[in-house]
Every structure is written in C-alpha cells, then in structure tokens.
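Supplementary Text 2. Reproducibility record for the structural model of the 256-residue chain.

All settings were left at their defaults, and a single model was retained for analysis rather than an ensemble. We include the record here because the model underlies the residue-level annotations in Supplementary Table 4.
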Amino acid sequence: MNFKRFTTGKVVLAALVLSACATAAYQPIKAGLLEYGGSQKTIFEKGKAEPVVPLAAMSGAADLYAVGAVSGLDGEITVFQGRPYVTKVRGEGYTTEHDLNHHASFAVWARVNQWSEHAVPESVKGYVDLQNFVKERAKAAGIDVSQPFPFQVAGTPVEVKWHINVDRTDGKPVTPELFAKSKANYVAKNLAMDIVGFYSEQHPGVFISAFAPAIPPGGSARNAMHIHMVSRDGKSAGHVDNLVLGPGMVLRLPKV
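Retained model, structure tokens:
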C-alpha cells in the first residue's frame, strides 16, 4: 500500500466530512422568499466581523443566488446560479475565488428555479429609481412586497460604482465609521453584468444596510436593497453602491 496516498486520502475525506457536518449544523433564518444569517448590526455590537455563515450553505445548486460580506472584513461574496464569486483585495488589485473555504459575517440567499422577465423602462436610471421599480413590478407580479424577496437585473449599465470590503480598522473594534472606511472602491463603465439583489423593508441593519451611498441621509428615501454585481467576463464581482442603468436592461423576479 502507498501509505502517503492513503494518509492524504484520509485527511481529504475527513476535511470533507467536517465541512459537510458544519454546513448541516448551520441553521439559517427564513423570511419571505429567502434565507439569511448573521447581521451587519451584530458586527458593530461585537466590534468584529466574525465568521457566521459557511459559504457551502448558500452555493452549489444551480438555482442558488446570494450576497454577503466575507468575515474579517476581507472581501465580498456573490453567488450567481450556484457559482460563488469571492472577491478580495490583494496588493494593488483584487482576486476572485470560487472555492467554498470561506465564511460570511452576514449573508442573504434564495433558491429560485423560475424567473419572470420585465423590461426596465428608460425612465428608470438610478439606484432609487431601480428600488422603486423593483417594488412596483414585484407587487404587480403577485409578490408580497411586505416580505423580503430576491431579484436580478441583467444588461449593460452605463456606470456602476461598487466596492470590496478590506479591513482598514488597524485592529480597532469595528464601528459604523470604520466599516464605511474599510472599502476599496471601483467604477465599471458599460460593462455587461448580472446583478443579484434582495429587497426588504423589514431588515435594515441585518442584511440591508441602513445607509447606502446612493441615498442621502436625512431624506425621505430609505434603503431597501442589497445588490451585488457579477461581470459577464467573470473578472469582477462585488457590492453595488450606486449605478446608472443603460438601455435594454431586464428585471427578473421569482415566479409565484
């Protein structure tokens, strides 16, 4: 017997079993048409972004879609059609990983195998426009908008401002101010992409940020979306802060 091969095989098998057990033990919270775990406000309460949700719990099946923040403020998690895109700032650029060896400090996900498509009017341009349109079309499509639900937007926006979390706390407890500072910001122009989104008016500070750069504080508008983008070339993925939609874009909603 090749002892080295046998030993390696046992180690790999043990790792797979432990991973499966950890995922099986994790119990998400269900709400509306989605599931979630962890919360943004818990990060501020504890002063650290602990690993809460295993990536394996929200990826794998082709009908899975998810967004989340990598634990330790070390990146963004986006799952599109079951494939994970984990982006992390490294050096002067960023990397994109697809393995499951990651945890989110908070995340939200859903399984949807049938979507209805709705043309986005040219009058819908910005972030708040999109948020209002998502709610309006979802309600017309028979979705209970008082409960959280997933959606997609596909096409080529004129511009998307997006970020990847990167720890810039210098070892200090995470506060809302340091959380806002711990981001590497990017701009994509005329880049074909798919946007994975989740809508809820009931979960600010959980999986919906109470503050969004596209919505000025003090006004009447409140953020109700958490949206990430995955470029069609697979090279970019991350949290969308603001956008300008382009012509011919499509909103996808779960069929109910």
